[in-house]
Design goal:
With 178 residues, the protein is of the alpha+beta class. The protein contains four helices and six strands. It has one domain.
Length: 178
């Protein structure tokens, strides 16, 4: 998606950690995926909450490069939807990545800065983007597995393994900024 959609060209997927979380209930509704920014507003390494300064726990890959985002999928729930819904979910989360790719979220005007004033309109825009991506004829081997449900993938491949990355903690900073 990132390689084919100019709207996502700002994303360096090598700096986005991909994770999974286990959905607690076997229901179709609820969280499908989340994007966790690893920086604060405008890409800052710190924020102030309740009059106290905090930084966020950092996450590094095996090559030493710092991840700026964590993209987590809730399994098996995410995989038990239709292909179109899965693509919308993926794009929904990728769209949250700031165009400046600085570890912050894309911020929209107004108090509903994450999804704009209407999450329904936000997802409709992501559905249009998904159709655009599919019209660009991406290689089926890149996304073909998304046609299958969790159970179908299990039958085909056996146990499903992935990396679970805990949510980063806020770390209080001492008075001298350390």
């Amino acid at each position: 998606m990132i390689a084919r959609l100019p709207e996502l060209k700002h994303i360096d997927l090598d700096r986005v950690a991909i994770s999974f979380n286990q959905a607690r209930k076997a229901v179709g509704h609820g969280l499908q995926a989340t994007l966790t920014p690893m920086r604060f507003e405008e890409g800052r390494l710190w924020t102030v909450r309740g009059g106290r300064r905090y930084t966020a726990q950092r996450l590094y890959g095996p090559d030493g490069r710092e991840f700026l985002y964590i993209l987590s999928f809730y399994l098996p729930r995410f995989l038990n939807h239709r292909l179109e819904e899965k693509l919308v979910t993926i794009l929904h989360e990728l769209w949250h990545i700031s165009p400046r790719f600085n570890g912050d979220l894309r911020r929209h005007a107004g108090r509903c800065y994450v999804h704009t004033r209407s999450e329904r309109e936000y997802d409709a825009a992501m559905a249009r983007l998904a159709r655009k991506w599919l019209s660009l004829d991406p290689p089926h081997e890149v996304y073909g597995f998304l046609h299958a449900s969790f159970a179908q993938l299990q039958r085909r491949h056996g146990r499903i393994f992935g990396t679970k990355i805990p949510h980063p903690r806020l770390i209080p900073q001492t008075g001298d900024g350390r």
